Amino acid sequence: MSKPAFSIYDASAGSGKTYTLVKEYLKIILLSKKPDAYRAILAITFTNKAVHEMKSRVVESLSEFAKDHPSDKALQLMQDINRETNLSLKTIQEKAKSIIKNLIHNYAAFDISTIDKFTHKVIRAFAHDLNLPITFDVSLDTENLLNEAVDAIIAQAGEDETLTNLLVNFTMEKTDDDKSWDVSREIMETGKLILNENNREEITHFSNKSIAEFIEIKNKLVEFCKEIEAETIAQATEALLLIEKNGIDVKSFSGGYFPKHLISIQEGKFNPNNKTYHEFEDIKINKTAKDGAIIESIIPELLAILKSIYIKFEKKIFYEAFLKNITPLSLMNTLSNKLQEIQKEQNILSIAEFNKLINEQIQNQPAPFIYERLGEKYKHFFIDEFQDTSEMQWQNLIPLIDNALSSEDLDGARGSLMIVGDPKQSIYRWRGGKAEQFIELSKTKNPFVNPDKELFSLATNYRSYSQVIDFNNQFFKFLASNFANEDYKDLYQNHSFQEFNDKKGGYVNVSFIPKFDKSEVEENEELEKNNLYLEATLKTILKVKANGFNYKDIAVLTRNKKPGTDIANHLIENGIPIVSSESLLLGASSEVQTCIYILRYLKNANDLESKANFLYYLAKNLQQNVPVHDFIAKGMELKNELEFQKWLTEIEVDFSFQNIRKKALYEATELIISKMIPVAKRNAYVQYFLDLILEHDLKKQSGIADFLYYWENNSEKLSIPSPEGNDAVRIMTIHKSKGLEFPVVIFPFAEENYSQNKGDKIWITTDESQVGLPKALVSKNKDVENFGEAAALVYNQKKEEDLLDNINVLYVALTRAEEQLYVISGLVSENSKGELPNNMATFFIEFLGSEFNEKQLEYEFGSNQKVSITKEVVSNALTIPQLSETLHPKNIKIAQRESVMWNTKQQKAIEYGNIIHEILAFVKTKNDIDLAITKAIENGLIISSQKEEVFATISEIVNHQELEDYFSPNHKVMNEQTIIQKQGAVVKPDRMSISKDKKVFLLDYKTGQHLSKHKTQLENYQKSIEDMGYTVDKKALIYIGEAIEVLHL
For the segment 535-565, what is each residue's pLDDT rounded down to a tens digit? Predict the structure, then answer.
């Protein structure tokens, strides 16, 4: 079966996509005639972990194939390849041997990488064209860069008049709205818009607008709003006059609502959320009204006036919403320029700029030119987790792939592309990854010239047990009815069903935390609810453990970090071992905290809180004689720093605060650790903290104050990598769990309100001729529906996207489970219309349908008996011994030559000879030896300990009985003297000793073997000297090594 040029694999959770990717990769390299076919393959995936897994699988498979007796797993793969390629098992074995040998010697060309690493490679190749310094560093910390830029802009207030007025007015607007006067958060949000590729089209419309132009647009919008207000008041007055002119009694209208509505507009109190009048029947007339016929005759005219009013109000409400966001938008250019300035200053490039740079500068280059720069030509492409590939990343890859698919090599073979993904696991819309991109490609869209495209479906779930698969099949098919969008509905209706594997059994448990009496816990309702979730999670873990599972089999997944942190703390309090990035936070270590307290004290000696905190650590860890509080009290009494230092020596802490303030950041921290932290406590946290300090010291030249500022803003994000293999419950966010699998998954807090995305913004099309901008940015809330039909369509599409993203997150969470799945949700109540709220709990309640009963808090599917075999937990953790010595800088000598690092015996002799050769250039007579050696030490040629050895060697040469004439004090000596020959060439003999009668004694120093060219060289020197009228009386070569050899010529 010939392989299509473009294969799309729709791979649901657990369907063996990595196996399929590896198999297809191996098929290409095994079918190729070349042993290095892997050089022409680029495989791209989403995370470093996935890269490692795919690389390992390819190498392990090839290694196993090359054996005479491969493992059962490898044999199964070989048989699959044999069936699909007709390559015999023997051929596969022979080819695998050749490929693995080639691959190990060219591992750098084995290109399986993350998309970011590949884009980085492209940018490096085009650094010169992009005006980037070749040595630029990549910054992953985009938020910190933005913070710096925002701070720099606010710091400019007072210098730039336009900017100052803008910031002052913005502050006033915020305080008028009863909001915090601090404008930095809104400016920061605008900065995030610049760096988020989802906004790239809209941002281009703003890129050439100055602050002054924005102020002009703002003033124009304020004016429009006033005009619209005046026009609507006039129209409402006109409608009321129409009623009055016709002698209609306002009481003839049912409840007087219609005239009241017109009066509210006339008084400028129109509320779009109140009842509005569009149809004849909307205007209700009292049955007893005598003037009913007259009212009916003017209703069309009244509705026409109101229609005009409503259209104007749509515009006014829209403009007012835009005005709330226009000030931070007007700083977009200033912020963008400041970001570029900071990056240039620091010689860095934010990772957020990668795709944009390629898109703007490189994408339009011809593919062969890009390949030439990269140094590789790729023919075959694999893209894993395609649903997470952003639109811009995909657009950037299309030219390269198109070139491969449409061109043939010398053997007539074309390139290929294989993409693997699952739109149901698309959970990165906020960074440009959209499910719609995969859905379109899996239908009719094909961006390539080559039309050969085929869709494959990996239908079987090999991960989970039958009961887990069955529950997820039913649950997600049921959720499909929540979508209005046909594509999204089809995705879950027809593409979420998975075939079963041969693993029978499994268990799913959906439980609800009980409702509580709100009147009793009104103040801390959220806290009480939180505690119920924490307790339910703990009970579930204990139940699973009692059922025969190990702690390491259990993963607790949460939607975001906060509940994860709460669970981690609760489990630690109850003695449950855990592993999570939250539990491994750098700031959670008391040793790291102590270092931070000391750094704060060094920055400000009046920071008594920090002083008390580090004294507490010293009291607990470095002394036992004095009670902790007495020790702290004594330390706090000593206000004079010198007295405080002297007192610390009593507990053997010899620490000069003044001296340490003069040190570089890394050196200061290393001293703090060596003096204050006991050797036994210098754990992974301390080591990781030192690495962080080193990075700041080297890359950013940070001082103590700079580092502390960074720590204040980032300490909650910094954690040490989690160790594998420990028997501990794993706690992580759903996003981090993607691509992983666990025997037991517990998903608490499953009642998030997915319709609430506070702070989100959307772009709405405007009348450019009137506003001066084609798009406006407004807050994403229900009010958008009142901005007109076009805005309502955009809003409803965004709502559908949010719903898809949330159901996708739920899909990722529930499909991580292999054997048992526990969902812990909350009971929710219907509103006055009998509707349940928009949250995850509603999904589970509606799915349970008639079985659901508020008094029953637990629902089971299958038997909770453990089916799998328990593996014994073996910890492979190795303890790295601690270094208790701190290297003193004065003990470091920098060797300027490799001679101090001699390795082989022969190399040692050659290096030593070269050094002696250099020192001899300073020696004319034996009286110069001491001075020459002193200069050699000063210049770093040798170190003091080598002085005697070198002295002995030089003395042996200078005083050698066969070399008396060469070192005679009566001769004129020329060392390393340049001679220009008649032909224009230059020679430089090592030593010429010239007597008064123009006789020359010629000497040349050599190292290593005796070679004939040395003799030829000396004869060349002799000819040059004799051409100048001198006579060479004697000439000799001295070979300097372990012994001195003199060769007379």
Answer: 999 999 999 999 999 999 999 999 888 888 8
- pLDDT, average across residues 244-252: 84
d(CA 383, CA 817): 25
Instruction: Give me the residue label for tokens 């074995």.
Output: 93
* Euclidean distance between CA atoms 825 and 536, whole angstroms: 10
Residue with tokens 């309100």: 753
Helix (H) or strand (E) segment spanning residue 41? strand 41-45
Query: Which pTM does this prediction carry?
Result: 0.78
CA dist 460 and 719 (Å) reads 37
Give the max Cα distance, the chain. 147
CA distance 407 to 829: 62
Phi, psi angle pair for 334, to nearest 5°: -60, -45
242 Cβ neighbours under 8 A, 6+ residues apart: 298, 301, 302, 305
Distance of alpha carbon 713 from alpha carbon 852, whole angstroms? 46
Q: Which tokens is 150 given? A: 């925002």
Residues 6+ apart with CB under 8 A from 1043: none
| Nearest alpha carbon to residue 736 among 581, 890, 511 | 581
Q: How many CB atoms lie within 10 A of CB 340?
A: 13
SS3 525: helix
Return the residue matching tokens 């000396």.
1018
76: nearest Cα among 89, 86, 59: 89
Quote the pLDDT of residue 906: 55
What is the residue type of 671? L
- 995 φ, ψ (degrees, to nearest 5): -85, 175
- Write the pLDDT tens digit of every residue in 877-927: 556 565 555 556 555 555 544 444 444 555 666 677 788 888 888 888 888
- Number of neighbours of residue 828 by Cβ within 10 angstroms: 18
pLDDT for res 213: 85
CA-nearest of 992, 989, 949, 954 to 972 is 992
| 263 Rama sector, left if φ>0, alpha if ψ -120 to 50, beta otherwise | alpha
Tell me which residue of 862, 859, 827, 854 sits closest to 841, measured CA to CA.
Answer: 827
Backbone φ, ψ for residue 206 (5° rounding): -100, -10
CB 276 within 8 A of CB 264: no
List % helix, strand, coil for the chain (3-state, nearest 5): 55, 15, 30
Query: Which pair of structure tokens corresponds to residue 929?
Result: 């030896």
Which residue in 451, 452, 453, 426 sits closest to 439, CA to CA?
426
Helices (H), 869-980: 905-920, 929-938, 947-958
Query: Dihedrals φ, ψ of 39, to 5°?
Result: -65, -30
Could you list the beta-strand ranges (E) of 566-702. Answer: 578-580
Q: Which of 841, 153, 783 is nearest to 514 (CA)?
A: 841
DSSP per-residue codes, 225-240:
HHHHHHHHHHHHHHHH
Q: Which helix (H) or strand (E) holds 97?
A: helix 89-105
